[in-house]
Every structure is written in C-alpha cells, then in structure tokens.
Amino acid sequence: MTTPLQDIQNFLTCKTPDRWLENALDNQTLMLIDHANCEKKAASTAMNLIYRYVDNFELINKMSRLIREEMRHFEQVIAIMRRRDISYQHITASRYASGLRELARNDDPGKLIDILIIGAFIEARSCERFARLAPYLDSELEAFYLSLLKSEGRHFKDYLDLAEKAAGDQTIEERVAFFAKREQYLIEQPDDVFRFHSGPIS
C-alpha cells in the first residue's frame, strides 16, 4: 500500500530537478515570499470556484475548507518571515500556473474538469517540493514544510476526485496525461527567475 506522498510522486511524471533544489537553498528569502504568494493564490482560486459553481455542494464544501487551510498556511509563512525580518514585498508570478491554465478548455464541463486537474497538479508539485526541501532546511522550516504535507496532499486528492465527478461517465486520464506533459516541461525547462514553482535557473 502506498503512502499519500508516494501517490503524489506516482501522479507526477518527473521529480523536481536537483538544480532547482540548489536554487531554493540559495534563495530562501525569495522562496518564503513566493510561498506566501502561492498560499494566497490557492485560496483565491478556490474562492473563484465557489462563486462560479454555486450549485455544486461537494465542490463548495471542499473549497471552503481548502480556503481556510491555505489562508492559515499563509499566516504561518508570514509569521516565519516576520521572525526572520523578511519584508513581504510584491514579486512577479512564475510561469507555472499560467502555463498550465492557458491550456484549459473554455466551456463547461471541460473548463471545470481542466481547472480541477490543474489544481491537483499544483498541489501535488507543492507537496513534492516540500518533501524534497525539508531535509535541507533549518529545524523550524523543516518542521513547517513537513507539517504541510498532510493537508496539501488532501487538497491534491480533493481536486482529482472533484475532476472525476465533474467528468461523470467519462474518464479524465487523457486530460491528466495532457496536462502532465506541460507540467513536466514547466518543471524541467530552465527559468529566468527563481520561484517556488519555477524550473531550474540557468
């Protein structure tokens, strides 16, 4: 029987490049700022789903819980930043999320299915990176990142389950494989700037 982390690693088609890990350890201040942004954006995405799909009670219940958890994580990140005298400042977003979302279909139910699959990839990659990073971080950050694995792993599963239900009698395997190819490209190809979901910096 596999663990939740193994399920996530099996879902993803590549692991985070070692070079990105080196980039993260060399840019921990930037990593924390962008991590805070990622938590805030995750909550915002879930809120948008609640507004758009008001008749989907399972979706709005799961997204409501997700919003509370993501904002709690946001609070925890900025508390760590404050203890370390890191100012919270505006930085540009990575190409990762937009690079996935630009492939989403325009009309429902395809649009909803794709948004949910993309959400599953974002949560899965976050988990995979928390696990990769944790052993190399100081004790506070290691404990914090390991503590996120359970809830973020559940978010991954919630998104994937909701996508399957939105598809009804149709399988989502083809769409998952479609987005997996783009996700791997975005993770492995060099980037110009370091972000939590960027590719390795060349």
UniProtKB/TrEMBL annotation:
Organism of this sequence: SAR92 clade bacterium
Record PANTHER family: TRNA 2-(METHYLSULFANYL)-N(6)-ISOPENTENYLADENOSINE(37) HYDROXYLASE, TRNA-(MS[2]IO[6]A)-HYDROXYLASE
Gene3D superfamilies: 1.20.1260.10
Name under which the protein is recorded: tRNA-(Ms[2]io[6]A)-hydroxylase
Stored InterPro entries: Ferritin-like (IPR012347), Ferritin-like_SF (IPR009078), tRNA-Hydrxlase_MiaE (IPR010386)
Database matches in SUPFAM superfamilies: Ferritin-like
Residue ranges of coiled coil: none
Transmembrane domains' residue ranges: none
GO molecular function, one term: tRNA 2-(methylsulfanyl)-N(6)-isopentenyladenosine(37) hydroxylase activity
Annotated GO biological process: tRNA modification
Family matches, as Pfam families: MiaE
